User: What shape does this take?
Amino acid sequence: MTSEELPGEELFLDRFPDEAQVVRASLWSAFVALGIGALAGIVQALHRVGYVRFIDSADYYTVLTLHGVLLVISFTIFFLVGLFTWAVTRSLDRPVENIRFTWAWYLTMVAGTVLAGVAILGGFVDSIPISADVLFTFYAPLQAHPLFYAGLAVFIIGTWLAGFDWFRSWWIWRSENDGRIPLQTFMVLTSMLMWYIATIGVAISVVFFLLPWSLGIIDQVNPLLTRTLFWYFGHPVVYFWLMPAYLLWYTVLPSISGGRLFSDPLARVVFVLFLILSTPVGIHHQYLDPGIAEGFKFIAMTNTMFLLLPSLLTAFTVVASMEHGARQRGGEGYLSWLGALPWRDPAFTGMALAGLMFAAGGFSGMVNAGMNINYLIHNTLWVPGHFHLTVGTAVALTFMAATYWLLPQLTRRRLYSRTIGLFQVVMWFVGMVLMSNAMHRAGLVGIPRRTAEPQYDGFAFDAGLSSVAELDAQVAIGGTLLFVSVVLFLGNLIISLLEDPMEGTVDRSLPPALSGPEDSPEVLDNLSLWVAIALLLVLLAYSLPIGAIVADGGLFGPGTESYPVVLSWLEVVT
Amino acid sequence: MNVHTYEKIWLVASLFLIVGFIATVVYGAAGAGIAMVDASGGTVDSTSLSENERFGEPGVERVGDGEYEVTVVARQFMYQPDPIRVPADSRVTFYVTSADVIHGFQVVGTNVNTMVIPGQVAKITVDFDEPAEYGIICNEYCGQGHHDMEGKLVVVPEDEYGGDDA
Ligand code: HEM
Ligand SMILES: [Cu+2]
Ligand SMILES: [Cu+2]
Assistant: This one.
């Protein structure tokens, strides 16, 4: 798809210039977060293993908060809103209703990020009484500056408004058109419905408890309650990161592979399953929490296991669509069709490698989900090992690869160097194989996550046949490769933008699925029905546990104090 | 809705896998008797632990033949008592709570691992058959000295065990 001469759709940028601007702004916001986050990442990797410790270990947690918040909140969600705006606009083929409203939600999200970011960065400067060294999970009674909670709330409100924007486009489209919801719009709408349900938890936690508490309006909170509300949101947010990647795998990857999506109905089924099942599972992050009865944990586990289904179905559809593409390109044989895929295209290779890593991440996720094995790995380095495969690669690498594909239609620029692009995605893959594999193994021998110096005085970890030094080396090398890969990605993009614009059109049309929406029952598009079922499941999974937590410990806790992170440290040293 | 044959096979296989996973955990919980941390430890006011009957005096207590209870308080950035000494060939029940923020309590190299949440009491029962020495680490970020938070668990041979609160 390099030739500018190809007849194709009008470029997105020409057809929807205002929207393209918002999409570009969102993606750039995402990439700024990615760049800073990656810098924090390499600092952590080298600090933990003890190779390079140029920051104080106490500041490690400020860096880690920055890494977590910037990468899994800012990077992922800014990319998501950009991609979803693109997807809704192009699949409905209509501009947004009011571009100023669109800018308003984008700026709201930026404002939220800046507020929270200032609070976090304040943690580096001792003379400023602002800090938010609470990591991205902000478990009370560790307390952040009110700016942090306020920023988070503002950011989420921005995403709610964005969702409204897309729904509004669809409502108006519906009044003028018949037929099924176009697939990409369907994916956006189901993802947003899931997001509305999921964010209720964190909104309640922040607005009713944490923010008033950090402002001194209430004295204490119930740490188990705010933690449970966090995880009510914390699991579905994982799917919120994945949804845009799935959207790309279902609707863009087949076309990059040279084929068509295998089944549109199945894609819809998958998104409906995510909408229904993503939320009533959050307690699986709390298998080791006292104060939650085993039965509730068990229900969460059962739901979680069923949540594997949509991902397993996706694996099937994606591979089947790629095979179809390969055969269209002349591929043959049982497995040799793989060779016919466009491996020289960084967009393809990046997404394919991301998908492969997701399969590996799925396996380690199944281990996490098992209530009993979880005891072995909970809060060990195994867990970051797992999610650097999922959000850190399946999502992040797919986003980077998709950017290569989106670039011409959003900027009228051709990618400066496909070779660097290809090198970059492969480098990410290799770096992640090293880092993630070592993290998984380190977790199995008990090395904890979220720890500046996982080297202890009283004992040493026993890495069995290998050695902790070998694991450390892998983390350090892997982390460095990942960082360099991000630098190459950003550099390649920036140079592309400095090049002259291209002429003509680029074929970025997305062919219809082999089995189209007409093959699927209408009920799949009945969004209210799915929302009702989702809410019902949430009620079933959460009303009893939350009721019990409040009954046992009270809304504001059985008695705890507040620990603004900076102050507590001063008390310790003096 | 027309679903491809391979797709159906895949779907059925996926469902089997899922049910299989659930079954193994059910077996673990019911059959093999692997106990989970649950709500049975109750709640406690973490601002007045010193007045609490159990947590006022963290330590080891013999409660029956080969049965011990260990009361542990986690706080920024240490465990009390430290080290914890128990005899081999014993069944030990830990009661762990926090005096301040959320901590972890992980006996390295075993699956004794729990969150320690202020206001909540984590209760876990473990059998220690052989003498051994284990590190205990806090695996939840609890403040800027988190990485210094460690403890020790010593399982001493039965005949060397001097008694409670050692
Ligand atoms: C340059 C690439 C990266 C490197 C070198 C890196 C390295 C690390 C390391 C070493 C940790 C463990 C820190 C600890 O537990 O003490 C970590 C945690 C984490 N990483 Fe990354 N990472 C990278 C990219 C990413 C990406 C792309 C994402 C997600 C999109 C991500 C998300 C996270 C999250 C959520 C945590 C956990 C934070 C917490 O425990 O609060 N990382 N990373
Ligand atoms: Cu989860
Ligand atoms: Cu700690």
Summary: Helices of chain B lie at 5-31. Residues A 235, 238, 284-285 surround copper (II) ion (ligand 2) (CB under 6 Å).
